[in-house]
Amino acid sequence: MTQNFFTLLNLPEAFVVDLKKLDQHYQAIQKEIHPDRFASLNDEAKMESVKKTAQVNDAYQTLRSSIRRAEYLLHLYGFDINDQKYSTVPQDFLLQQMEWREELETHHKNKEVLEKLASEVSIKKNEKIDLLPTYFDKKNNLPEAIKITRELNFIEKIEQHIDDALIEVS
Amino acid sequence: MALLQIAEPGQSTLPHQHKLSIGIDLGTTNSLVATVQSGLATILKDQDDHVLIPSVVHYGKNITHVGHDALPFLLTDAKNTIMSVKRFMGQSLNHIQYKDALPYEFDEEGQDIQLKTEQGTKHPIAVSADILKKLKTMAEVSLCGEVTAAVITVPAYFDDTQRQATRDAAKLAGLNVLRLINEPTAAAVAYGLDQKKEGTFIIYDLGGGTFDVSILKLHQGVFEVLATNGHPHLGGDDFDQAIAGMIRKTCDLDQLNYEDKRSLIMEAKKIKESLTTHPDVTAKFKLSNGKDISFTLNRDTFARETNALVQKTIQPIKRALSDAKLSITSIDGVVMVGGATRMPHIQSEIKTFFDQEPLNNLNPDEVVALGAARQAHTLAGNKSDQDLLLLDVTPLSLGIETMGGLVEKIIHRNSTIPVAKAQEFTTFKDGQTAMSIHVLQGERERVSDCRSLANFTLTDIPPMVAGSAKIRVTFQIDADGLLSVSAKELSTNKETSITVKPSYGLSEEQMTLMLTQSFENAEEDKKIRALSEAKIEGEQIVTAVQNALHKDGNHLLTQDEIKGIQNAIDTLSSSLKESDADLITGLTKDLNTLTESFAAKLMDQSVGNALKGKSIDKVKL
């Protein structure tokens, strides 16, 4: 079975993660188990190393991103944030989303507008991420954590679309 | 059983073995071999002191010429002289660009590109194998010893099919490939180690036929690729074709024969290279019908006419930056790799884009091979002076076909490799015992816009009511960037068999046939070699397992398990005194199987140790 990502990387199971420690632990493990350490050896060892390294990579990628980490913690706590019952989105968030999408569609060729939009979205994203530590702390307010994490998923998507548009212009 | 390397670092090479490992840059236009000698990476030269070996093969009636020997035939026997074969690797016939400008006769049957030559139909994999054989021999002559292991570089943007094709070519050439590594990553290794640099670097690698851009973080011997992107068919060759096109247009040429097509490309290449040092160039040459051609080109016109090609490299840079979530200002340096980066208008475009002077302090032709040699040296088990660790990524997203011809992504591009992702499927009909999964690579949403890798057919699914079987399919990309798929039915915990039908490449039978052909005259050699290889492997595992038992056996295994392993060691040891390769290989395999769970336990233990032990101190700032 897959090991708990926090245990695997020897970090306390919490939303707030010491990213420097995360990097250090990850690299220390990689230096021991990466397939490059077994390249001239037999197939079984290689396969074992590929399997384990893939797990460690998965754990690292998940814990490194605030949004992935939030999703993972909620999953550990037994919540499936993609469940129908969480699908209602607050009115003001919905309006904000529509506004952004409209802006993106109307100005998808305008570099300046896109850059302004990107930074606006990014600020909103960080504001929401900053709310998460308190909600997760001592499982203070998990329903709110679920709501915010879902909203962050939407924000990430629009952020990607803005980025794609920015690559196309100029 | 290898986990011993953890226990005894740097001891995997037995003292009586003299192991030579090489790094190969298998380029579109030229190839290079390098090795590490007394701690220094050096490019190997052939007997005429050449460093660059042209990736050209001539198939004459009874003789094959490779490299410099093949060059004279480029013009005299164009159809049988293959250059830039790398562009054909892993490609099907309908993907070739400028097919009419190429002096080859293509076999129109089948999907794969096949070239008709004096020596019969040649698959690009076989042509690449001939280049690799030449490089191997060259290295063996130069080093006076047998090359036992190699690292081969591939463009970072190569897909699974192209990587597999390269692996197959190496197998045909009789090379033991330790790893395929990405060209920009190899360049970063050479650059980072040579210049002792740390920070975030962009590698801009424009070769003869491929373009890669990789963003790496270099920190204390760890080379972490943050993102990579590129263009699978963009390189110096395209600039040659552009000039050749200009000559055709200006001089009103069409309906050229094979030789004239080739001389046009070669003249174009010369013009391109001269324009690096001269503001304008005039080429004068004769066509086979005696017609005199004179063509003048200046730098500005060349830059203007090929600006679209240069711009094609900018888009991938932006994508890579976006994927790495970095802006231009956070880049500490731009390292230029590949001969094509010598073109002045590329240098100036990159300088403008990044607002900094690109780094040209290493030879752009050699840096990839040097990095590959370093990595080969480390992978072969030599203790390296630096704790070198490469963390690379997969360049393209991997997905499966779903309803309506759409692709559902399973592994996203720029995931650090090795990576494994599982997906659960269920049956559609009562009693269904098989299902088929179509795997694709690419970023687009429609199946028709992505690269088809293979069809996997799962059989032996236990018959159940529709929807109640739960089949977990695991997609794994290993450190070479190669895909493998495994499947398990969860309610019965039964492995399902998988048959793979790759969309491209040599079938198992074709491979075997080609391998036998190449060994036909060396049947005896082959036996001797097989025996000595089996013995070396047997000895290695015996030493390894004994060490591991001694060190960790008592606290990780039961007495019965130890006894069983000890028995297997004894049987294998006694077989090593005989000359039966099959027996030795069989017993080695038995011992391997027996120690599998021991290996897993050691792996877990070493993760634990890594976190507790010294390794942490090493990475501390």
Can you describe what's shown?
- By secondary structure, chain A is an all-alpha fold.
- Chain A is globular and about 60 Å long.
- The relative contact order of chain A is 0.12.
- In chain A, α2 runs antiparallel to α3, α3 crosses α4 and α4 packs antiparallel against α7.
- Chain A contains seven helices and no strands.
- Chain B has 621 residues and is of the alpha+beta class.
- Chain B is 38% helix and 25% strand.
- Chain B contains 17 helices and 27 strands.
- In chain B, β5 and β6 form a beta hairpin.
- The longest helix of chain B is centred in the last third of the chain and has 34 residues.
- Chain B is globular.
- Chain B starts with a helix and ends with a helix.
- The N terminus and C terminus of chain B are likely disordered.
- At the A-B interface, α2, α3 and α7 of A face α9, α11, β18, β21 and α13 of B.
Brief sketch in words of this structure:
The complex is a heterodimer of chains A (170) and B (621). The radius of gyration of chain A is 20 Å and the shape is globular. Chain A starts with a helix and ends with a helix.
What descriptors fit this protein?
heterodimer; A: 170 residues; mainly alpha; 7 helices; globular; B: 621 residues; alpha+beta; 6-stranded mixed beta sheet; 5-stranded mixed beta sheet; 17 helices; 27 strands; 38% helix; disordered N terminus; disordered C terminus
Task: Report how far apart the termini of chain A are.
Answer: 48 Å
Q: Pair with the most extensive interface?
A: A-B, 40 and 56 residues
- Major sheet description of chain A: none
How much beta of chain B, percentage-wise? 15-25%
Total beta strands of chain A: 0
Fold blueprint:
The complex is a heterodimer of chains A (170) and B (621).
Chain A lengths: L4 H4 L10 H15 L9 H22 L1 H11 L14 H16 L4 H26 L5 H27 L2
Helix pairs in contact in A: 2-3, 3-4, 4-7, 5-7, 6-7
Chain B lengths: L3 H4 L12 E6 L4 E8 L2 E4 L9 E2 L1 E4 L4 E3 L6 H4 L4 E3 L31 E3 L2 E3 L1 H20 L3 E8 L5 H13 L4 E6 H13 L3 E8 L4 E9 L2 E10 L4 H15 L7 H17 L5 E7 L5 E7 H7 L1 H17 L9 E5 L6 H11 L12 H13 L9 E3 L6 E5 L3 E6 L7 E7 L9 E7 L9 E9 L11 E7 L5 E7 L4 E2 L1 E6 L5 H12 L3 H34 L2 H17 L5 H14 L1 H17 L1 H6 L2
Parallel strand pairs in B: 1-10, 10-11, 12-17, 14-18
Antiparallel strand pairs in B: 1-2, 2-3, 2-4, 5-6, 5-7, 8-9, 12-13, 13-14, 15-16, 19-20, 19-22, 21-24, 22-23, 23-27, 24-25, 25-26
Helix pairs in contact in B: 3-4, 5-11, 6-7, 13-14, 13-15, 14-15
